[in-house]
Amino acid sequence: MFYLDSLAKPFYVWTFNENMGKWANDLSNWNQKWGLTDGVICLKNVAAEAETVGEDMSWLAVNSKVEEETLKSTKAPLWSPPIRKSTGMRCITMEYIINTGSDESEGYILSVLKQQDG
Questions:
Q1: pLDDT per residue as tens, the chain (118 positions)
Q2: Which of 71, 74, 78 is nearest to 48 (CA)?
Q3: pTM for the complete prediction?
Q4: Which end of the chain, C or N, has fewer beta carbons within 10 A?
């Protein structure tokens, strides 16, 4: 019980119950997106858009011979809102569960990185 008593009181607690709190998907990760589902942040594959060919490109075959599979990225960054220099970087504690819906959960990890601009 001593360990729990010695933890600092959080400056703010965000539960993701209402919205994503301005946390944003990385723009370079086009094939996977984080989204809010029942108060939980979930990573989902984004289906590729069907190709359409205009009259000016009739030489381009619309249907490919091989079905293209959505590639699974090994990284799916979720960016925090900007943190003011006057606020400074603080400690962050996250409670998380990695659930892939199968026995493949082993080997996945959560990494939190500090980025400094400028």
A1: 555 566 677 777 778 888 888 888 988 888 888 888 888 888 887 776 655 656 676 666 555 555 444 445 468 888 888 877 787 777 777 778 877 777 765 667 777 777 666 4
A2: 71
A3: 0.59
A4: C
